[in-house]
Amino acid sequence: MARGDIPQDSYHLVGISFFILGLGTLLPWNFFITAIPYFQGRLVGANSTTGTLGTNHTGPADTFNFNNWVTLLSQLPLLLFTLLNSFLYQCIPETVRILGSLLVILLLFALTAALVKVDMSPGPFFSITMTSVWFINSFGAVLQGSLFGQLGTMPSTYSTLFLSGQGLAGIFAALAMLMSMASGVDAQTSALGYFIMPCVGILMSIMCYLSLPHLEFARYYLAKKSQAQAQELETKAELLQSDEKNGIPNSPQKAALTLDLNPEKEPELELEEPQKIGKPSVFIVFQKIWLTALCLVSVFTVTLSVFPAITAMVTSSTSPGKWSQFFNPICCFLLFNVMDWLGRSLTSYFLWPDQDSRLLPLLVCLRVLFIPLFMLCHVPERSRLPILFPQDAYFITFMLVFAVSNGYLVSLTMCLAPRQVLPHEREVAGALMTFFLALGLSCGASLSFLFKALI
């Protein structure tokens, strides 16, 4: 139960707001990759009235390699701004970062929607789209990091709600695609309706963020952030003074524990305490979590090397019809996002294998097998590799295991890393894992060019 002086989240409005904000942070990435067939239709010369959302136009001879470039230019900004976040977050106020990012993303998505109505040759259309992808994801990276900073002062339940919103962004994009395709309207109107949906989602995110200062529960916790620095300085001063006087360890909790421990244990505590003075060493933390971090890099490298660059090329082996038209949106994007979300949710019930097990690196390495498996699925236009798995059931089975394992192993590694370090080192461990997450995404996006060329 919360203390009486802590306000309540009336009608769960703050929780709903952070859920929608989480949804808004990953809508751009998901809406762009889910609409890959539409963009490819425009880039092979089809104009805006004939390029459809569902028809797959890609192949190894695709001049623009749209699916590869959209993946790479979506992930590089995340890596870049992960490296620059300390500088940016100190120089630019939080409100400016969040509201400014949301407004820029909204304007660029409005431009993408407007381009549906504009007849344009493939070259300029590709350049404008790639520029939009870069800037949308750059501001998305700033937005995501800033919101995680706000969540750090709130109860962990709100971080879970935010992450749940992010997990459902892909499902929302896939369902929006299916609704647009099944609407029965012409291709141009269908595409326009599809790209208007994320604009509505971003507008809702803006309204949710603007509502937070008017909610007492949010004001109570967000006010702690401005007080944290002063409290930290005050605590450090008190601890230093305590050390000088009587040698009590640099932590109120440890000081309390010292009174209850046997005399033989005290020297051991005194030996450990110097490690906790000052800022934790990044190198020491990395030495403790390097294997878990490498597993995270490997998981995302494998995933982004084939999804969506290769998986979006797979078509149904059945005769043309409704199923073949809806096959890729359902079996690639919707299925992946649903199973990935399920895999991430499993870590709420159990964490296996644990951080000391060598089984985790083995499971991560086995995921490399998905690369040849997807490359040998039913991609009609190919020049090198044969089709060994032509039936739709093969692709669906591979995608099920691929998506669940991605969600579970990503969530598992992110949960295990903080358990491998001391409590005061967990913040550094989290920052390192965020960097390696971005590194894995960028590596996978880069490798997708090679794997597509090999088909």
Automatic annotation (TrEMBL):
Known catalytic reactions: hypoxanthine(out) = hypoxanthine(in); guanosine(in) = guanosine(out); adenosine(in) = adenosine(out); thymine(out) = thymine(in)
Membrane topology according to the record: Multi-pass membrane protein
Compartments in which it is found: Apical cell membrane; Basolateral cell membrane
GO cellular component terms listed in the entry, alphabetical order: apical plasma membrane; basolateral plasma membrane
Residues passing through the membrane, by range: 12-39, 69-89, 96-116, 128-149, 161-185, 191-212, 289-314, 326-347, 359-381, 393-416, 428-451
GO biological process: adenosine transport; hypoxanthine transport; inosine transport; neurotransmitter uptake; thymine transport
Job of this protein: Bidirectional uniporter involved in the facilitative transport of nucleosides and nucleobases, and contributes to maintaining their cellular homeostasis. Functions as a Na(+)-independent, passive transporter. Involved in the transport of nucleosides such as inosine, adenosine, uridine, thymidine, cytidine and guanosine. Also able to transport purine nucleobases (hypoxanthine, adenine, guanine) and pyrimidine nucleobases (thymine, uracil). Involved in nucleoside transport at basolateral membrane of kidney cells, allowing liver absorption of nucleoside metabolites.
Name of the protein: Equilibrative nucleoside transporter 2
Species, as recorded: Rhinolophus ferrumequinum (Greater horseshoe bat)
Gene field: SLC29A2
